[in-house]
Amino acid sequence: MKLGFTAEDEVFRHEIADWLADNLSGEFESIRFRGGPGDEHMLFLERVAWEKKLAEGGWTGIGWPREFGGRGCSLEQQVIFYEEYARAGGPGRAGHIGEGLVAPTLMAFGSKQQQQRFLPKILGGEEFWCQGYSEPDAGSDLSNVSTRAEFDPNAQVWRLNGQKIWTSLAQVSDWCFVIARTEPGSKGRNGLGFFLVEMDQAGIDVRPIQQLTGTSEFNEVFFENALVATDCIVGQPGDGWRIAMGLLGFERGISTLGQQMLFQNELQEIIRLAKHNGASKDPSIRQRIADAHMGLKIMRYNAMRTLSSEPTRVGLDCASITYKLYWSTWHRNLGNLAVDVLGPDADIVERGSYGLSRLQTLFLFTRSDTIYGGTNQIQRNIIAERALGLPKEPRPAV
Predict the structure, then answer these.
(1) What is the structure's pLDDT at 1?
(2) Burial of 219 by CB count in 10 Å (0-12 exposed, 13-18 middle, 19+ buried)?
């Protein structure tokens, strides 16, 4: 791991810490420590306003190259930003998908026109994005997507038909990036396109999915002749898989540090409660808290080791491939720890809009961590086959 902080970096630390202290108050006090896993739906409009506040202060796209309007901050300064943001109780970023996934993808694969059209709106906290990957028969097996994109030569548009599922915050997003088949009869990774789809149109129906928590962060999205302009396909028809994998590489890049800062806040809340209600006197609880602390440190050091290694344009290195399996298992176990620290209170639901405390919500939501984004079983196959080079499991002939 090649990471250290210079005197200039510490000046940067004071700059962001002071800015957060001055601005994450007053009208934004209510969103401190909100918007984490299982809480993304809460105070969304207030967090949208916060995105614009961040943009005004020059705190969006801090790692983007200056040519695209970013600050061009070093890795070290980006780490500092996430550290101070978490310490101040900065809310979960409403613009994470756009800033952390769509923008780097457009910088790497998009046309000049696409970069000029979308990047400023993302940077300014003006447009928000969701992800159109998973389908009922293509969750962990992304290459099995069946959503179709057919080019209409008369209208000079693409027509999108199919269904996506588990689409986080689709109900409040302006745009969605969608993987769809551009070649009829194509299978697997071939014949896919990567589309940028405007959500506010008659051909799109968003249906919320009620979760265990009583909320509806996830959605089904149905496309029925939804229109996509010809300049809203990234790359060429058939490039979809390559671009989709490139985006997943960005998903496990610097934005992982922001995720880990949210995890740190959750762990601190559990520790605070354990001290308050006496659960910390239980040796087994103390041991599990220590294990959680060590696991989070391992997660952080591994992420920084990966980020400070030689960058690759596309694809995941071996260390990155392990990340999803590691964090999802750790976070699920943190949810278990939360309800054990709560004790009998974990079984009590209070009256209210949803009736669940943040730690109860944490427990319920983390049941999904080892499923979405690739199940733990699939992640182990990926590690075995792609990272370790082991032979693939035998598959029956179709």
Answers:
(1) 60
(2) buried
